[in-house]
Design goal:
Length: 74
């Protein structure tokens, strides 16, 4: 999934928390959204996608991969 799709999915979870007045999960999703926001893809030397935060030479970085995996399982 793209970075924007991942942020949209987290925003859906946040909206669900607000819609159902289930505030117990909201802080966790807000923190998760903040982590995803800083681990965004950028072009390195105009060629390759890298994580702007990790400076790893591939995107998605391990952090984003772990988040995507957990969201897919939940």
């Amino acid at each position: 999934m793209t970075h924007d799709e991942l942020l949209a999915k987290i925003n859906e979870y946040l909206q669900d928390c607000e819609d159902h007045i289930r505030m117990e999960g909201k802080e966790g999703y807000e923190a998760l959204r903040a982590v995803v926001a800083i681990h965004k893809p950028v072009y390195w030397q105009g060629i390759e996608m890298v994580c702007d935060w990790c400076d790893i030479t591939s995107y998605p970085c391990p952090t984003i991969q772990a988040i995507e995996k957990e969201l897919a399982n939940g």
